[in-house]
Structure formats: structure tokens, C-alpha cells
């Protein structure tokens, strides 16, 4: 991604609103994403959470927070790190910066590593550039689910430790 002038980024985020998410993600699309999360979680013992943010809050903009820093902040705030097997994964979309970040807990990260997560992010971003927003997210969920299924097969008694609801900020 090419560098953006700080004032331009500031204005872009300042003018972003959660209702703008609906331009790319209809209510049906969000429901389909939630269904993809639930279906994926039947195939493994991991947890996936999706957060879509139109733009950063003013305090984050003023701090010069990167999308990665914001994703890590939300990973902690939403307790995604607090799964029994340390296998929670956050998929974070920051629309104002056209950025996708994946933050994974140490249990799964040790197997996939940063390169694996970046590959999924790049595939999703490519689909977004083609206007395939819902498909991009569901593709990411499927790819993450494949890694989780390899390293955390489903348990006899499945549990849902994290909400499958797509959080729109």
C-alpha cells in the first residue's frame, strides 16, 4: 500500500461513518458471513470473529494508529485471546484505509505464522478490489478455518466461546 498524506488520511477517517459499511455489506451479506463463521466452527475447535470498521475513532486517528495496531487493540478488547486453546482469530476490516488485518492467538499463530495470515489478507483484498466484499470475507473465513481444522480438530462437544455476530463499528 502506498503512503497516504496524514491530513488526507485524517479527513478520510473523520468523514467515515458506520452506515457506509452498508455500501459494501448488506444485512443479508452480514448474515451470510455469520453463517460462514458458524459453519466453519463446526469443522474445528477454533474461534473466528469478524469486525468491520468504517473509519478509526478520532482518538486513534490523532495517535496515528495503524490498522494493525487497531486490530491488536480490538483483539484484546473483545477478549479474542481468551479462548481455552488460545486459538481465537480476528478478521479486521478497516474500510477507510482499504485494509484487512488478521490477528491470531498464539495457539494457532505458531502454526500459521505471519506469512500465512498475510497471504489470506492479500487474497481478501484482491477480492475486495473486484467488488466481491461478502465473498472476500467468506473466503478468508474458509481459509482460516482450514488452518484451524488442521491444528484444532472439532471437539466431541462443540462450544462457541466467541460471538459469531459481525461487529460493525
From TrEMBL:
Q: Which domain of life is it from?
A: Bacteria
Looking up Pfam families in the UniProt record yields:
TPM_phosphatase
Q: Where is the TPM domain?
A: 25-146
- Which InterPro entries is this protein grouped with? TPM_dom
What is this protein called in UniProt?
A: TPM domain-containing protein
Q: Which species is this record about?
A: Methylophilus luteus
Lineage of the species this protein comes from: Bacteria, Pseudomonadati, Pseudomonadota, Betaproteobacteria, Nitrosomonadales
Amino acid at each position: 500500500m502506498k503512503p497516504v498524506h496524514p491530513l488526507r488520511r485524517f479527513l478520510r477517517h473523520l468523514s467515515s461513518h458506520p452506515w457506509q459499511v452498508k455500501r459494501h455489506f448488506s444485512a443479508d451479506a452480514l448474515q451470510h458471513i455469520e453463517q460462514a463463521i458458524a459453519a466453519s466452527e463446526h469443522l474445528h475447535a477454533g474461534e473466528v470473529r469478524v469486525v468491520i470498521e468504517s473509519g478509526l475513532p478520532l482518538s486513534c486517528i490523532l495517535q496515528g494508529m495503524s490498522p494493525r495496531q487497531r486490530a491488536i487493540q480490538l483483539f484484546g478488547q473483545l477478549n479474542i485471546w481468551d479462548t481455552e486453546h488460545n486459538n481465537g482469530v480476528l478478521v479486521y476490516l478497516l474500510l477507510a484505509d482499504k485494509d484487512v488485518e488478521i490477528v491470531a492467538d498464539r495457539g494457532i499463530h505458531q502454526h500459521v505464522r505471519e506469512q500465512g495470515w498475510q497471504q489470506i489478507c492479500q487474497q481478501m483484498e484482491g477480492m475486495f478490489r473486484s467488488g466481491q466484499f461478502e465473498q472476500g470475507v467468506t473466503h478468508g473465513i474458509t481459509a482460516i478455518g482450514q488452518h484451524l481444522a488442521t491444528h484444532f480438530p472439532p471437539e466431541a462437544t462443540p462450544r462457541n466461546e466467541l460471538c459469531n455476530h459481525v461487529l460493525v463499528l
